[in-house]
């Protein structure tokens, strides 16, 4: 289904974008996994200039509803990148991905906007997968959340002078993610400010070994996940900003669960090697903390972001 002509008037698109978990332990700013939890967005071109934003669910009453809204900024950024004039827009967002918890909500908002722009510009500008990744990464700053949000599955993303690149992989069917979400939030900017300028060479080697092993564990040998999720590049530097997360990860790992910080935190990702492990991991956390942690048993999303155009509405 596609839009009838080259005019933007009356165009309407619906976008669905998965949440993501990035880093996966050793793969800092590189590895990401799409999870079956989705934000949905409808964008309609309207006659009046400017943006009108309605938000339902997570972030309602909190996120901006004008041109400073991150989704609107991503649409505007994409239109500008392809030399297109931005029309008046009416956005309706239904958000489910928790904000500020390390589940890729800002990446999902950016990908929502980029995909909406792709849909709205259908037949006028064709934006290929690397173009989508480039536009999203320009706003997010690093590609490890936006790559799986766009393409689904497990993604390896890397940056070159020609722009960000990605490889999508299908994870082993036994890999069973559990995400434990605290009430507190964490700012990615704060987490990144805690990173040192340089790291010991031995630590870099440690992470090269674990992250390459992690690819094997995720696509072929889930029994290696505990060894493969060790990290020396980011989690220890950030632990002081999320001590409860750090404490619970140590407790989970001591019992053999492959637990890591999800993205920049403070949620915990447990990459269980079979579905039954997830309940035991959630029980362990519930028994070791006095504060409420929400358990999200999430499948891996294999599809990534989708956009549907509504040609019937074009007059
Ligand atoms: N790789 C990023 C970080 C993910 O850990 O800072 C969060 O955006």
TrEMBL record:
All residue ranges annotated as the GHMP kinase C-terminal domain in the record: 230-281
Enzyme class: transferase
Enzyme nomenclature, EC number: 2.7.1.39
GO biological process: threonine biosynthetic process
Pathway assigned to this chain's UniProt record: Amino-acid biosynthesis; L-threonine biosynthesis; L-threonine from L-aspartate: step 4/5
InterPro entries: GHMP_kinase_C_dom, GHMP_kinase_C_sf, GHMP_kinase_N_dom, GHMP_knse_ATP-bd_CS, Homoserine_kinase, Ribosomal_Su5_D2-typ_SF, Ribsml_uS5_D2-typ_fold_subgr
GO molecular function: ATP binding; homoserine kinase activity
A UniProt-annotated Pfam family: GHMP_kinases_N
Reactions catalysed, as given in the entry: L-homoserine + ATP = O-phospho-L-homoserine + ADP + H(+)
Subcellular location: Cytoplasm
A single Gene Ontology CC term: cytoplasm
Domain GHMP kinase N-terminal, first and last residues per copy: 69-153
Main location: cytoplasm
Keyword entries, A-Z: Amino-acid biosynthesis, ATP-binding, Cytoplasm, Kinase, Nucleotide-binding, Threonine biosynthesis, Transferase
Record carries keyword Membrane: no
UniProt: ATP binding residues: 98-108
Coiled coil: none
Purpose: Catalyzes the ATP-dependent phosphorylation of L-homoserine to L-homoserine phosphate.
Family: Belongs to the GHMP kinase family. Homoserine kinase subfamily.
PANTHER family in UniProt: HOMOSERINE KINASE, HOMOSERINE/4-DIPHOSPHOCYTIDYL-2-C-METHYL-D-ERYTHRITOL KINASE
UniProt protein name: Homoserine kinase
Organism: Herbiconiux oxytropis
């Amino acid at each position: 289904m596609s839009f009838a002509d080259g005019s933007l008037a009356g165009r309407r698109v619906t976008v669905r974008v998965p949440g993501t978990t990035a880093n996966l332990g050793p793969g800092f700013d590189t590895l990401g996994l799409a999870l079956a939890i989705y934000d949905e967005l409808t964008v309609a071109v309207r006659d009046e200039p400017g943006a009108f934003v309605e938000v339902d669910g997570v972030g309602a009453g909190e996120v901006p509803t004008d041109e400073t809204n991150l989704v609107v900024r991503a649409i505007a950024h994409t239109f500008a990148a392809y030399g297109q004039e931005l029309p008046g827009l009416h956005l309706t967002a239904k958000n489910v991905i928790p904000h500020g918890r390390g589940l890729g909500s800002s990446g999902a908002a950016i990908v929502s906007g980029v995909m909406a722009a792709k849909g709205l510009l259908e037949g006028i500008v064709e934006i290929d997968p690397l173009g989508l990744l480039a536009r999203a990464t320009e706003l997010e700053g690093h590609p490890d959340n936006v790559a799986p949000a766009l393409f689904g599955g497990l993604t390896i993303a890397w940056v070159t002078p020609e722009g960000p690149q990605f490889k999508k992989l299908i994870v082993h069917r036994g890999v069973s993610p559990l995400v434990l979400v605290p009430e507190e939030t964490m700012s990615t900017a704060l987490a990144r400010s805690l990173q040192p300028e340089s790291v010991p060479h031995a630590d870099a080697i440690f992470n090269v070994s674990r992250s390459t092993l992690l690819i094997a564990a995720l696509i072929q040998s889930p029994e290696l996940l505990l060894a493969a999720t060790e990290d020396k590049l980011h989690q220890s530097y950030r632990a002081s900003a999320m001590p409860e997360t750090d404490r619970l990860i140590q407790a989970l790992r001591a019992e053999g669960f492959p637990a890591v910080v999800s993205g920049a935190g403070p949620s915990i990702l447990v990459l269980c090697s079979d579905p039954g492990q997830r309940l035991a991991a959630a029980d362990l956390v519930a028994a070791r903390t006095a504060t409420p942690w929400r358990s999200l048993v999430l499948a891996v999303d294999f599809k990534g972001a989708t956009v549907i155009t509504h040609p019937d509405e074009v007059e």
